[in-house]
Design goal:
- By secondary structure, the chain is an alpha/beta fold.
- Helices cover 43% and strands 15% of the residues.
- Strands 2-1-3-4-5 form a five-stranded parallel β-sheet, sandwiched between helices.
- Helix 4 (58-75) runs parallel beside helix 8 and helix 8 packs antiparallel against helix 9.
- The two termini are 32 Å apart.
- It binds 5-amino-5-deoxy-1-O-phosphono-D-mannitol.
- 5-amino-5-deoxy-1-O-phosphono-D-mannitol binds next to helix 4.
């Protein structure tokens, strides 16, 4: 069942090309238009949505953060993302024009379920992005968009995360299509790029040795920081969470722009800092800003380990190690940049002799509040 891998986590990391591919499968008609019939929510109703609130916990919430950047950009519908357990207790503003998008691998996370129930009581429409057929959250939601990652056994979420992000992109593009927000050609170009992602993930997997070697060399690190901007920010948070969960190392993910507002005080000689570098072809001056962030931490003695787009040689001179990932559209980058961070955490934890499938104190599905 582990397909020859030592652990489920390794297997699931390696399942990711298929998880993304299967989540994309069958969701367009012959003319390339997105069809999400399974949503069970009326197209007219979806057209009237004035606000989206994404609710989730843990890794699923980071998928939700990525969703926010993409859905807002493509649909111009305001999107909030909130941890499900915080949402319910803050008297949120919801009505029948609010679409609640829950994200959950298991479909049984109690915090998320309770938040969805609460939103329903307040009159919101609810849509579940979920990996488990027939589980409670999709059963109790008005609509469902299943991720097809297959069963995820390891406690740390990997392939479900990439599948959740993929599903969120499909939802965003579908809403843009419904509302006439984007040209069909534009949507098709993004879909074509999404279909190229599985092959690109495979390239990263085929070159995993460099990451594993670094992980082994860093097994004794007491603390590791992760920086990112834009969609690289949730990727940084996810990289940090994987390292905490699996290797019990103190790790934090920051928005790189926040550095000088406090976290830079943590930097001292030898501090490892992972930096998720946006594409140099991206919008605005994001790439340049992140390169300056790298220089800032380096000037204070940090070891910068960068995840950058293939061909982006500008970061090499400032990095102790660079992991190159294939190029794609800036918004789709999390589907690639996350993979080295997962491999890193898994390899480092294995090096320390920890049980990567069943880390201490954690349950696969948190069914209590
Ligand atoms: O089943 P869910 O997606 O609702 O689970 C949410 C979180 O509990 C889960 O992602 C958790 O953070 C993982 N252990 C992360 O690896």
């Amino acid at each position: 069942e582990k397909d020859g891998y030592d652990t489920f986590m390794e297997k699931e990391i390696n399942d990711q090309p298929k998880a993304v591919e299967d989540t994309l499968l069958g969701r367009t008609d012959a003319s390339g238009r997105l069809i999400l019939d399974e949503l069970r929510i009326d197209a007219e109703e979806l057209k009237g949505i004035a606000k989206i609130i994404v609710l989730a916990c843990g890794t699923a919430a980071y998928a939700g953060m990525v969703a926010k950047y993409a859905i807002e950009h493509w649909t111009r519908i305001p999107v909030e993302v909130e941890l499900a357990h915080e949402f319910r207790y803050r008297d949120p503003i919801i009505d029948e024009n609010t679409l609640i998008v829950s994200v959950s691998q298991s479909g049984e996370t109690m915090d998320t379920l309770m938040a969805v129930r609460y939103a329903k009581e307040q009159g919101a429409r609810t849509l579940a992005i979920c990996n488990t057929n027939g589980s409670t959250i999709p059963r109790e939601s008005d609509a469902v968009l299943y991720t097809h990652a297959g069963p995820e056994i390891a406690v740390a979420s990997t392939k479900a995360f990439l599948a959740q992000i993929t599903a969120a992109y499909l939802l965003g593009l579908y809403l843009a299509q419904l509302r006439g927000q984007m040209f069909t050609g534009e949507i098709q170009d993004i879909l074509a790029d999404l279909h190229k992602i599985p092959g690109k993930i495979q390239q990263i997997l085929d070159n995993a040795d460099q990451i594993k070697d670094l992980a082994r060399a860093m097994a004794d690190s007491p603390s590791v920081l992760f920086l990112g901007r834009h969609v690289g920010y949730p990727v940084a948070m996810e990289g940090a969470l994987k390292l905490k969960e699996l290797a019990y190392i103190h790790a934090e993910g920051f928005a790189a722009g926040e550095l000088k507002h406090g976290p830079i005080a943590l930097i001292e000689d030898g501090q490892p800092v992972f930096v998720v570098v946006p594409s140099p072809r991206g919008r605005d001056s994001l790439h340049g800003k992140v390169v300056s962030n790298i220089q800032e931490v380096r000037a204070r003695g940090a070891n910068a380990i960068t995840v950058a787009e293939e061909g982006d040689d500008s970061v090499t001179e400032f990095s102790s190690t660079v992991f190159f990932v294939p190029e794609t559209q800036p918004l789709l980058m999390p589907l690639l940049a996350t993979v080295p961070l997962q491999i890193f955490a898994c390899a480092l934890a294995s090096e320390k002799g920890y049980d990567v499938d069943q880390p201490r104190n954690l349950a696969k599905s948190v069914t209590v509040e």
